[in-house]
Design a protein that fits this description.
Layout: E1 5-7, E2 10-13, E3 18-20, E4 28-30, E5 45-49, H1 53-60, E6 66-69, E7 74-77, E8 80-86, E9 94-100, E10 103-107, E11 129-134, H2 146-162, E12 166-170, H3 176-182, E13 191-193, H4 195-206, E14 230-233, E15 249-254, H5 263-266, E16 271-273, H6 281-291, E17 295-301, H7 303-314, E18 317-320
Parallel strand pairs: 3-4, 4-5, 5-6, 10-11, 11-17, 12-14, 12-15, 13-14, 15-16, 17-18
Antiparallel strand pairs: 1-2, 2-3, 7-8, 8-9, 9-10
Amino acid sequence: MNLLELTPSGLYCPQADIFIDPWRPVDKAVITHAHSDHARWGMKHYLSHHHSAEVMKLRLGQEISLETMDYEESLEINGVILSLHPAGHIPGSAQVRLEYKGKTVVISGDYKTEDDGLSQPFEPIKCHEFVSECTFGMPIYKWQSQKEIFTSINAWWKQNSSLGRNSVLFAYSLGKAQRIINHLDLSIGEVFAHGAIWNTNQALLANGVKVTEIPKVNQEIPKSRFRGTMIIAPPSAMGSQWMKQFSPYQTGICSGWMNIRGARRRRAADAGFVLSDHADWEGLISAIKATEAEKVYLTHGSTAVFGRYLEEVEKIHAVELKTLFEGENSNLEDS
């Protein structure tokens, strides 16, 4: 009995006739989180966690047919018990648990195991089969604590401010940007948001997510007010005309890919901070072991390397799934 199948449209549960994060238009789509590689346009009906609701409408259109659930709430569909559980990736991110005739499968979407103080922390769910990302599924990926990273970010900003320079930090507009904003030391100066990030903030606030409210960059703000401030912008703003209003400035990038030597140089940024909303090598292993799953399906990332480790060292049966999920894109494009 297979509770989950990989089809040309995405991951499919035949018993409930639902798709999880499909990449082609289908009738019924359960969405793990609102990043664009998981929440795509064109579905007849969507189901997600309620913290994803307004962001999905912002990105996909107010007219979408959307039903929402809370964590731990359950729904029965053709005998399949479906429930959502915290993934810790971004606000509203969820693991999808499917139970049918004594068998349980969990589709994790994207996740991280460190509590970011913004998202509901990841909770491992016992299951027979577990679908896991492995974006950073290699031993070289080992994150410092969030506290250490933000100490470095705030020190960088403070130094720039003391020299009369503005600081522009590039981060995904959904999830990472709000995480950064919530942990900045506001005693250093003001913080401003690019329009794409400000709009996302408003959508999350409307759903009850606690995001520090900051002003949006606009033409009415005099250039002198930006002196020594922090501006949070999506990667798409790098090198754009929009950046000229902040001169003189220093740029920084927040991404797990900053762990790789040379990544910052290739993007021509002044600073790189290893801040990811995905689990590192140890986080992936601990999360998977905690599920006690007999079989693990691996999507996007270092699936071959990580799968071999699970098979040979942890003695867990691992299978690679070829999906269209991207995880944290190494090109740092906004998602």
